[in-house]
Amino acid sequence: MTDVDPPYLHPEYRSTVTRAPSRVLLTMPEELHALAGPVFGEDAVAAADADLTDGPGGEPLGERIIVTGRVLDDDGRPVPNALLEIWQANAAGRYAHNGDRHPAPLDPNFTGAGRTLTAADGSYRFVTVKPGAYPWRNHENAWRPAHIHFSVFGRALSQRLVTQMYFPGDPLFEYDPIFNSVREPRARELLVARFDLPTTEPEWALGYRWDIVLRSTPFEP
Amino acid sequence: MGPFFSIGLCGTPQHELPDGSVRVEGRVYDGEGAPVDDALLELWNPEHGFGRAGTDAEGRFAFLVPEGARRFELLVFARGLLKPGVTRLYLDDEDAEDPTLVARREDGVFRFDVRLQGDAATAFFQL
């Protein structure tokens, strides 16, 4: 699946110039490829962790959304008990992080962090607010399209994935070097969730569906 | 993965592995020799479990690993890494694929730096 992965060095994304590993990569030892991943039990993840709008002080501002889908391997088999961790900016495009200097308001009711484990059929579901676009200093007038960061632990080292989910029709796609670091247009489409009316709950929240496909592992699930 | 991952990935400290008693510490540097202050390191080992630590403003990280551990798989994440750097941390140099993967023991503490680029750059594996 290397054609869907971005390269390390993508100079349009300026930080890669000084951070992309520079040495020729060593061949992966066979046992490393097959190394089983850490197992996260249900005790590590509370059901409430999948609802980012469930703050102690009240609901965050913004457009409430449901993000759901399945984690699959590239043979189409569901990956159960995969740990998903997400983080995102608030509806105004501001992260609840000291390093974020964007002059947009923080929301006291939104940390922007969530996690869950996939069910037996590989499915997951988060409730959150739609993140805002925000500026960054990569180049003149640079703005990131709205996105949610996803970290995934599948069953093996080869199934460790950190990626970003985008929203359909974002006008910033063509200007964003991170989105475009995935060179294959078909692969870029896989980063974009689709609006889904059946997932949408009447009088409550818009629904988006986004499936995550991991590599297959050398061992059976 | 951007500089703000600590919102989602560092909620609970995980730098101490089960039965961790031996300190492994070091720094992460970029190609200009500047510390990488927004890196996240993950240690994987089938026997010794999983650990995760972020770097501080000086690029420093630290883990506590169990006595007798000899090797960990190491994933390095940071702003500017479009996919994780995949490498190994050896606490014993018998089998290391490359000298840059071996931690040095000084006063009971293992020292291990990650250099993403440069003459002494760390070896990474193709995943």
Proportion of residues in β-strands of chain A:
25-35%
Uncertain residue segments of chain B? none
Instruction: Count interface residues per chain for the largest interface.
Output: A-B, 49 and 46 residues
Please tell me how large the radius of gyration of chain A is. Answer: 18 Å
* Largest beta-sheet characterization of chain B: 5 strands, mixed
Look at the structure and give the mean pLDDT of chain A: 93
Low-confidence stretches of chain A: none
* Rg of chain B, Å, rounded: 14 Å
Instruction: Specify the helix fraction band of chain B.
Output: under 10%
Helix count of chain B equals 1
Order of helices and strands of chain B: HEEEEEEEEEE
Q: Estimate the global geometry of chain B from the Cα principal axes.
A: globular
Distance between the termini of chain A: 19 Å
Number of strands of chain B: 10
SSE topology:
The complex is a heterodimer of chains A (221) and B (127).
Chain A: H1 16-19, E1 26-27, H2 30-33, E2 64-73, E3 83-88, E4 113-117, E5 123-129, E6 134-136, E7 142-144, E8 147-153, E9 160-166, H3 185-189, E10 194-195, E11 206-209, E12 212-214
Parallel strand pairs in A: 2-11, 2-12
Antiparallel strand pairs in A: 2-5, 3-4, 3-8, 6-7, 8-9, 10-11
Chain B: H1 6-9, E1 20-29, E2 39-45, E3 49-54, E4 60-66, E5 71-78, E6 85-90, E7 104-106, E8 109-111, E9 114-115, E10 125-126
Parallel strand pairs in B: 1-8, 1-9
Antiparallel strand pairs in B: 1-4, 2-3, 2-5, 5-6, 7-8
Write structural notes for this entry.
The complex is a heterodimer of chains A (221) and B (127). Chain A has 221 residues and is mostly beta strands. Chain A is built from three helices and twelve strands, in the order αβαββββββββαβββ. In chain A, the strands form three sheets. In chain A, strands 2, 5, 10, 11 and 12 form a five-stranded mixed beta sheet that branches. A four-stranded antiparallel beta sheet of chain A has the order 4-3-8-9, with no helix packed on it. Chain A has a two-stranded antiparallel sheet with strand order 6-7. The two termini of chain A are 19 Å apart. The mean pLDDT of chain A is 93. With 127 residues, chain B is mainly beta. Chain B contains one helix and ten strands, in the order H-E-E-E-E-E-E-E-E-E-E. Chain B has one helix spanning 6-9; strands at residues 20-29, 39-45, 49-54, 60-66, 71-78, 85-90, 104-106, 109-111, 114-115, 125-126. In chain B, a hairpin with a 3-residue loop joins strand 2 (39-45) and strand 3 (49-54). Chain B is globular, with a radius of gyration of 14 Å.
